Amino acid sequence: MTNYEAFRERIDAVWKEYSCPEELRPKLEWSMRLTRASGKFKCFLSRKECRIILNHKALMAYGAERMMSTLNHELAHAILWAKHGYMGHGIRFKVLCSKLGGTMNTQMAGLAYKECADTRYLPRKSWAIYKCPCGAVIKRGRFYSYQQENDLVCIKCDRPLTSCGKFRERG
Ligand SMILES: [Zn+2]
Ligand SMILES: [Zn+2]
Predict the structure, then answer these.
(1) How many whole angstroms from 171 Cα to the centroid of ligand 2?
(2) N or C end of the chain: which has fewer CB within 10 A?
(3) Rounded to the nearest whole angstrom, what is the distance from the C-alpha of residue 137 to the centroid of ligand 2?
């Protein structure tokens, strides 16, 4: 049973701790539509409202603790935006994200913030799998149109991937 209230309380506590403008406190939303990202910070041009969106499927897969560190990542975005109008994943972001106990993907964390790195991300929805007669199996993150497929070549033997019949199957 997820304690959704704990997420709300975390936002309130951090917002108070960092003395952020009350009217800009992020609204929290659980989404069934986010795909791979476990969370998202969304702000509006008017600078009058912002929102933290958390991936409900990731919550089901990885549990509340994982999602709490995602919330901390998004909170770092929210604080920097609300106080300084800052967006992005620069050094300023990383310092605060790490301080709040937020996660970053391994590439973002690098060596300097490797204690923040988390590899638990939802798998891609579907893989296009191409099998070449040479034996190579090539996985792509999405399916291609027939036109686009004509430009694909095997990474091993350089043969066009569509020249030898049916390589494609759902993974
Ligand atoms: Zn981010
Ligand atoms: Zn090949």
Answers:
(1) 19
(2) N
(3) 8
